[in-house]
Please model this.
Amino acid sequence: MKNWDDLRYLVAVHKTGSMSAAARLLETNPATVSRRLSRLSESLGFDLFVKTPEGWVANEAISDLIETITGFENEIVSYLHTQSTAAPATGGNITVGCPPTISAYVFYPALRAFLESHPGLRLTFNALTLTEALGENDMIIVTQRPEQGRLVVRYIGKFHINVYAYPDSPRDMGWIGLNRSHDQAETMQFARKVMAGHDPLIRVETLHEIMGAMRTSRLPGLLPNIVAMSDPELQRFEPEQADLVSPLYLCFHETRRRDPLLQDVADWVAQEFNRTTQL
Model:
């Protein structure tokens, strides 16, 4: 293979699921991404990706190649963090993928103190809802334990959810839930059961957005306990209804085990979950 740099474009599309997102990640344009992938495809002798409604999915024939490239990429990042002479575990970029509710109510309140102890750290939080793959993230927080990939999986806590309402909320079974892509998720199945089998009257993208819609519409809605506790007016729609409890897992690629910066962020994440008693 003459153009090893083409492999960067392969991994970028695999991580992001689209040509445009890969172009942004690599600071180029979609046409360049497409051209590089076409050249690589011609060299290997088969199509690299299959177009699906969820985006571009890698051909199974290149899964081992992608795993090898990703592992090498992570090894390089870990090496650079380790070899930093000024502050070996404080400087660099770390991207965390997690549900927006967790970012807003667990991590953001604790950011100032953590960043003061890591002055060179640059954190990016990506909203994560359905995926169990790392994608472009250095680490992810998910409610389903991943079964595939060379991931280090660390249990960090539990997530409590219930259907909440205001004292003046209507009881006609209209409620606020997630969009249809989540209909088979355990959270939506739980809420639908509480609401006597009725579908949501209003749907939004994330649990984090439900609170705002509830405040203006006064309809009941599916909420994490940590969000509901921020509004003293809210109460369980069914007072005797037990919470839906989901485990939470922190995951990162096994080649990052010795990355001091990533391990510092992972320890901070676990620490903040231990401090948060309302989850």
Remarks:
- The first helix runs from residue 6 to 16.
